[in-house]
Design a protein that fits this description.
mainly alpha, single chain
């Protein structure tokens, strides 16, 4: 039983790590694009370009949040105490609300 617990802990850590990599990747990509925009001599519309940067960052954040939620759900299966379930409900609730509003903002930006 302990082997299964250790395997699930490794899976949770791996999934959480993937979520973190996606978020960090998005931030780095957005910063690089923003710095490129600021030092660019091209006659691009800075507002539309920065909106595009924000949209891509939002997509990374949204995917990262969804992956973190998946890790939290798996985590509750590893040690299902009432305290852990309560914490999971709170964390998933906050992340779901964040995901919802981020998704709505991304949809508004596309129109």
């Amino acid at each position: 039983m302990e082997t299964v617990h250790n395997i699930l802990q490794a899976v949770i850590l791996t999934i959480s790590g993937m979520g973190a990599v996606i978020v960090v990747w998005g931030v780095i990509e957005a910063l690089a694009a923003f710095i490129g925009l600021k030092f660019s001599s091209a006659k691009e519309d800075p507002v539309s370009k920065s909106e595009s940067i924000r949209q891509r960052l939002g997509a990374h954040l949204l995917l990262g949040l969804e992956i973190f939620i998946a890790a939290d759900i798996i985590s509750s299966a590893v040690s299902p105490s009432w305290e852990k379930v309560g914490i999971l409900v709170s964390v998933v609730g906050v992340r779901t609300v964040l995901s919802y509003f981020l998704r709505m903002e991304l949809k508004q930006g596309m129109h």
